[in-house]
Write a structure and sequence with these properties.
It holds the Pfam family Rotamase_3. Keywords: Cell inner membrane, Cell membrane, Chaperone, Isomerase, Membrane, Rotamase, Transmembrane, Transmembrane helix. By secondary structure, the chain is α+β, with helices and mostly antiparallel strands. It folds into 5 domains: 1-42; 114-188, no CATH class; 206-244 and 564-659, no CATH class; 248-259 and 467-556, Chitinase A, domain 3; 265-463, Chitinase A, domain 3 (Roll). The protein is built from 24 helices and 22 strands. The strands form 7 sheets. Strands 6, 7, 8, 9 and 10 form a 5-stranded antiparallel β-sheet that branches. A 4-stranded antiparallel β-sheet has the order 17-3-21-20. It has a 4-stranded antiparallel β-sheet with strand order 11-5-15-14. A hairpin with a 3-residue loop joins strand 20 and strand 21 (648-659).
C-alpha cells in the first residue's frame, strides 16, 4: 500500500494531466476528423462559380421545383430516371448561368432603373411581356387600364398572393431588360466589312476545271506501315485541342435478371380472382379498384380512340356492369369492368387559374382571391393575362391558362374536378371550383369539339412480381459467380464458358445516375469512381436484376491517353506516313503525266471546283484541293506540288477558270444577312463556349452524392 500511496502522491498531477489530454484528444479527433468535423467531407456546398457557392438545400429546391413543373406538364405522370437526371443538370446549369451573367452585368455596369421598369410597364412601347398579358379582349390591343385593375385587386388581396405575382412579373421584366442590354452590347460589336463582302463575291465569281492524279492511301497496305507509341503520343501532343476529354469511367458488366416464374404468375392470378369476386358484387367499383388495383382508378370518360390497353375492342364493347378478363398487360394480370357510358366531347378546350391555400387557415383567403379574379374576368378582364400573372399551376401559367385535352392528354390528378366541370359545362361558362385541401380554380369553358361515345372503365390489376424464392435464386447465382471470379481474367473466362451476355457502360460521368440498360444505377457509378482498373465489383442489387461489374477504364479530365484514342490516332499517323511514301515516290513531278507515270495512276478530270465549297465532285470533301485550284502560284500554267488530301495524295493542274453567274451584288443586304446570322450564332454559343469556359467553376456534386 505504501508503494501505491507514493505513486499517488508523486504522480497524481501527471496522471490528471494525461487524462485531461486524452479527453481533449478524443474530443478534437471528432472535431477535426469525425463525421461532423470541420475538416471532414461534410460541406453543404455542392459547387460554386466565380466564388459564389450553391448549397445542397438550394440545389435540391431547384431540382424539386423543376421536377414538380415537369410532372404537371406531363399530366401528373411519374418522371423517368433519364428525365430526372436531365433536370439535375438543368438545375446546375441554371445556377451557373444566373451567377455568370450577374457577374457580367456588374462588371459592365449594366442595371435597370426604376424609371426604365415603369416605362417598360406603362410607356409608349411597353415590354412584350405586358403586351402579351394585358390585352383588351374587345380591341385586341394592349390596355394599361387592365394593369390598374389588377393592381387595385392586388392591394385589396389580404393574402399578398397577387402582389407577389406582380413582383415576379416585375422581376421577369427586369431580368429581360438586363439581358437585352448585355446582348445589345455584344451585338454592336458584330461587323461585316465591305472588303470581306467584296472578297467573298470574288471567291464565288469563278469555278475551276481541273485535271488531277489521285493516289489513294488504300493503295498501301496498313500492315506495311509501322507506327510506334512515341509517334502516336507526339501526334496527340501536337493536336491537343482535338483530344480534350472530360473525366469518365468505363465498366463491363453482366446481369442476373429477376424474372417472375410461372409459379409467381399463378400466385398473382389466384389473388386477383379472389378480388374479382368482390368486384362482381360491390356497388362502388371505383372505390374498390382505387384501393385494390395496382393501376388505381382513373375517374374519366374516354373515347374508343383514347383507350390504349390490350384487348381494347373487347373491353369497350362490354355492357355496363360486365367484366372482361383476366388478360395480361405488361407485368400485370387484369380484369376490366365497364362502369358507365355517355356522349362526351372528343376534344375539350378550357382555361383555369389555380389559387392555392397557403396554410391550414387559408381557405377563406384563397376563396376571396378566386372570387375577386372571377369578378375581374366577368367584367371584361383578359383571362390569359390574369392566368399568366396569378395562376400557381406552372403549365397553365405559361400557356395563358388554357388546356386542350384530346386523346390521351391528361391533367394532374388534383385538377380532375376542373376537367369534369369543363366537360359537363357549357361553352363560355365561368365557374369557381373548390379543390379539396388544395385551393380554388377559376375555370372557363372555351370549346367542346366532336361529341362522341365515351366510356368509364375500372381496371382491377395485380402486378406479377418475382417471389422471394425467385429473387433469392437469382441472387444466389450472382453471388456464386462473383465469389468464384475475383479477377478480370477469370471474370471474362467464366462469361465465355457460361455463355453469358457481357455489356458495356462507357463514358460514365461523375454525376451520372442512369446507365444504359440498367436504369438508376448510382451505386455502380460511385463504385466505379472508387475502384481501380480491373477491379471486380460486389453484387449490386438494382430494381429487377443483380449486377456484377469489372472496371475496364479510368479517364481523367484533360488530354486523352493513347489507349483511349489509339485507333483514331493510329489511322491519322499511318495516313501521314503513307502520304510521305507516296510523295517520295512521285519525286516532285514537273507535270501531271510524270506524277501518273511514277505512281501508275491515271489522269482524271473534275469540273466546277469552287473555292467557296470544300466538296469536289467525284472526290468528296477535299478542302485542300478546292483551295489549291485557286492558288495563283500555279494558275493554269503549272501543275501543283503533291497535296496531302483526305483520301489520298493529289497532284492537280487547272485547265481553265469559268465565270459563274451571280445575283446582283447588294452590299447592304449581304451585310444585313451576314450580321444577322453571326448574332444568332453568338446568342447560341456565347454562354456555353465562352462565358462558361472563362469562369472558375467547381463542381463538387459527385462527391456530395457519393454516399447518397
Amino acid at each position: 500500500m505504501s508503494v501505491i500511496q507514493k505513486i499517488r502522491d508523486k504522480y497524481a498531477v501527471v496522471i490528471i494531466v494525461l487524462i485531461c489530454l486524452a479527453i481533449v484528444s478524443f474530443l478534437l479527433q471528432d472535431v477535426f476528423f469525425g463525421r461532423n468535423s470541420m475538416f471532414g467531407n461534410q460541406s453543404n456546398t455542392v459547387g460554386k462559380v466565380n466564388g459564389v457557392e450553391l448549397s445542397n438545400v438550394e440545389y435540391q429546391n431547384r431540382i424539386e421545383n423543376a421536377q414538380r413543373a415537369a410532372q404537371q406538364n406531363m399530366g401528373g405522370l411519374t418522371l423517368g430516371d433519364e428525365e430526372v437526371q436531365r433536370i439535375r443538370e438543368q438545375a446546375w446549369d441554371g445556377f451557373l448561368q444566373e451567377q455568370i451573367m450577374k457577374g457580367q452585368f456588374e462588371e459592365l455596369g449594366i442595371e435597370v432603373t426604376r424609371a426604365e421598369l415603369i416605362d417598360a410597364v406603362r410607356g409608349k412601347t411597353p415590354h412584350p411581356v405586358m403586351m402579351r398579358y394585358f390585352v383588351n379582349p374587345e380591341t385586341g390591343q394592349f390596355d394599361p387600364a387592365l394593369i390598374d385593375r389588377v393592381r387595385e385587386n392586388a392591394r385589396q388581396d389580404q393574402t399578398g398572393q397577387m402582389s407577389a405575382q406582380l413582383e415576379m412579373l416585375d422581376r421577369e421584366i427586369l431580368d429581360y431588360q438586363e439581358r437585352n442590354k448585355y446582348i445589345t452590347l455584344i451585338n454592336q460589336a458584330v461587323n461585316y466589312p465591305k472588303w470581306m463582302a467584296d472578297l467573298q463575291v470574288a471567291d464565288n465569281a469563278k469555278n475551276a476545271n481541273i485535271s488531277y492524279v489521285h493516289v489513294p492511301y488504300v493503295t498501301i497496305a496498313d500492315s506495311t506501315v509501322k507506327v510506334t507509341d512515341a509517334e502516336l503520343n507526339k501526334y496527340i501532343q501536337d493536336h491537343k485541342a482535338a483530344f480534350q476529354v472530360p473525366e469518365s469511367r468505363k465498366v463491363e458488366y453482366i446481369t442476373f435478371d429477376v424474372i417472375p416464374s410461372a409459379a409467381d404468375t399463378a400466385a398473382a392470378l389466384t389473388e386477383l380472382v379472389k378480388l374479382k369476386e368482390e368486384l362482381d358484387t360491390t356497388a362502388d367499383a371505383a372505390s374498390f379498384t382505387k384501393l385494390n388495383s395496382e393501376l388505381g382508378f382513373n375517374d374519366v370518360f374516354l373515347s374508343r380512340n383514347a383507350i390504349q390497353v390490350p384487348e381494347k375492342d373487347s373491353i369497350v364493347d362490354l355492357p355496363v356492369g360486365a367484366i372482361y378478363g383476366p388478360y395480361r398487360d405488361g407485368n400485370a394480370v387484369v380484369f376490366a369492368k365497364m362502369l358507365a357510358r355517355k356522349t362526351q366531347a372528343d376534344t375539350l378546350k378550357f382555361s383555369h387559374i389555380f389559387i392555392p391555400m397557403q396554410s391550414a387557415n387559408g381557405d377563406s383567403i384563397a376563396k376571396k382571391t378566386a372570387d375577386s379574379l372571377e369578378a375581374v374576368i366577368r367584367g371584361g378582364g383578359d383571362f390569359a393575362a390574369l392566368a399568366t400573372v396569378f395562376s400557381q399551376d406552372p403549365y397553365s401559367n405559361k400557356s395563358g391558362g388554357e388546356y386542350t385535352l384530346a386523346g390521351l392528354a391528361q391533367l394532374p390528378n388534383e385538377f380532375a374536378p376542373v376537367k369534369e366541370a369543363a366537360y359537363d359545362g357549357s361553352v363560355g361558362q365561368i365557374k369557381v371550383i373548390k379543390l379539396p385541401n388544395l385551393g380554388y380554380s377559376i375555370m372557363k369553358v372555351n370549346a367542346q369539339i366532336n361529341p362522341a361515345p365515351a366510356v368509364k372503365v375500372a381496371y382491377l390489376a395485380k402486378r406479377v412480381d418475382p417471389s422471394s424464392t425467385t429473387s433469392s435464386e437469382a441472387l444466389a447465382a450472382a453471388n456464386d459467380f462473383a465469389s468464384k471470379n475475383r479477377d478480370r481474367k477469370a471474370f471474362d473466362k467464366a462469361i465465355q464458358e457460361k455463355g453469358l451476355n457481357k455489356r458495356l457502360a462507357n463514358n460514365i460521368r461523375p454525376m451520372d445516375f442512369v446507365l444504359p440498360g440498367l436504369g438508376n444505377a448510382r451505386e455502380i457509378v460511385n463504385w466505379a469512381y472508387d475502384a481501380d482498373v480491373n477491379d471486380i465489383s460486389p453484387v449490386f442489387s438494382l430494381e429487377d436484376k443483380f449486377v456484377i461489374a469489372v472496371m475496364t477504364g479510368a479517364r481523367e479530365e484533360g488530354t486523352a491517353s493513347l489507349e483511349d484514342v489509339r485507333p483514331q490516332v493510329e489511322s491519322e499517323v499511318r495516313k501521314i506516313k503513307k502520304a510521305g511514301q507516296i510523295i517520295e515516290k512521285m519525286k516532285n513531278p514537273a507535270t501531271l503525266e510524270a506524277a501518273a507515270a511514277a505512281t501508275n495512276q491515271p489522269v482524271l478530270t473534275a469540273e466546277g471546283v469552287s473555292f467557296a465549297s470544300p466538296f469536289v465532285a467525284a472526290l468528296g470533301p477535299e478542302p485542300r484541293i478546292a483551295g489549291a485550284a485557286f492558288n495563283k502560284t500555279w494558275g493554269t500554267a503549272k501543275s501543283s506540288d503533291p497535296i496531302q488530301g483526305v483520301s489520298g495524295v493529289y497532284v492537280i493542274k487547272v485547265s481553265s477558270y469559268v465565270d459563274v453567274q451571280q445575283p446582283a451584288y447588294d452590299y447592304a443586304t449581304q451585310r444585313q444577312a451576314a450580321e444577322r446570322d453571326t448574332r444568332q450564332m453568338v446568342d447560341q454559343l456565347l454562354f456555353p463556349l465562352i462565358l462558361k469556359k472563362k469562369s472558375d467553376i467547381k463542381d463538387n456534386r459527385a462527391q456530395f452524392f457519393r454516399t447518397n
